[in-house]
Amino acid sequence: MIDESFIHFCTNESSFLKDKTENMILIQSMTKILALPGLRIGICYASPLICSNISKRLPTWNVNSIAASVYEKAISDEDYIENSKQNIKIWKEKLIYDLSNLEFLNLFSSEANFILIKILDNKNIFDLTQELLIKYKIAVRNCENFSGLSKNFIRIAVRTPEENKKIIDAFSNIFYGTRQRLKSRKKTPSIMFQGTASNVGKSILTAALCRILSQDGIKVAPFKSQNMALNSFVTLNGEEIGRAQALQAQAAKILPDIRMNPILLKPSNEKDSQVIINGKPLNSMNFKDYDQYKPIAFEEVKKSYDSLASEYNVIIIEGAGSASEVNLKKTI
């Protein structure tokens, strides 16, 4: 039996459904991604024989008509599920960032829409959960009865930005009153391969280290702020990045992502290049035009890097043809 109740939240979604065997029971839940736990609607994929045996043990009318109607509508609306997935991803990144700045919390993130938190303060967890509920109308999961966890753990769900801010403020008020004390944020470690010229092996070395770290169980991602190439790799979302970064992503055992190469320049003639920002063609620019656009481009580079760094343990950076990204530096 395989439980895929939270698979809709996974970044690199890969269901066992495509490899289903005769002795496999696969369970998925729609109430998680739809945020409708009261409906209690789910799906069981299995062989006809197993399904028949399960049906004999189910109560009559085990799925109510409202739940069935919602499920029927939901599975036909792929855009809604995808938009929900993307929104939750953005909200979760911001929530993790804000929570990690509170020095009394230690976070354990996951692919699901939950965040496991260890309270580093000596405050009684039962008193904490009661205060959150009674004073702030926020219910969190006390995890002291979870196997392998101590009485210092709670679990919270990813909510809307407005609701997430409420729990940040509540934590700050409970532990520090109205004064929020921030801890220095530990930056994600990174390594950059630099060179003195093009075609000296930086791309291959980056890919090699991505594979080595991945094999050691480290969640690693490649990054190159700007690439220039005649050809590109097209991601599953139809967006373009450098082929080298696609290879490096494969070495890291993750899907290619536009954040790995936010700027791609595709030369069209001796003077102009097609500028691709975040996987999408922007315009054809000459050197002068691009020089004026660089401040905007650099902001996109920083956003992409920070977003990747918030999700991975290590970032492997492929430098440009020199030890500095001279094409993006500020002109003095």
Please tag this protein with its features.
332 residues, alpha/beta, Aspartate Aminotransferase, domain 2, Aspartate Aminotransferase, domain 1, four-stranded antiparallel beta sheet, 16 strands, transaminase activity, transferase, aminotransferase
Can you put this structure into words, describing what you see?
- With 332 residues, the protein is α/β, with parallel strands linked by helices.
- It has three domains: 2-76, Aspartate Aminotransferase, domain 2; 80-176, Aspartate Aminotransferase, domain 1, CATH 3.90.1150.10; 190-318, Rossmann fold, CATH 3.40.50.
- It has helices spanning 48-57, 65-75, 78-100, 125-136, 161-176, 202-215, 243-251, 287-309, and strands at 2-3, 26-29, 42-45, 105-108, 114-119, 141-142, 153-157, 190-193, 220-223, 226-228, 233-234, 240-241, 263-267, 273-277, 280-285, 314-318.
- Strands 4-5-7-6 form a four-stranded antiparallel sheet, covered by helices on one side. It has a four-stranded mixed sheet with strand order 10-13-14-15, with helices on one face.
- A hairpin with a 5-residue loop joins strand 13 (263-267) and strand 14.
- The protein is globular.
- The mean pLDDT is 87.
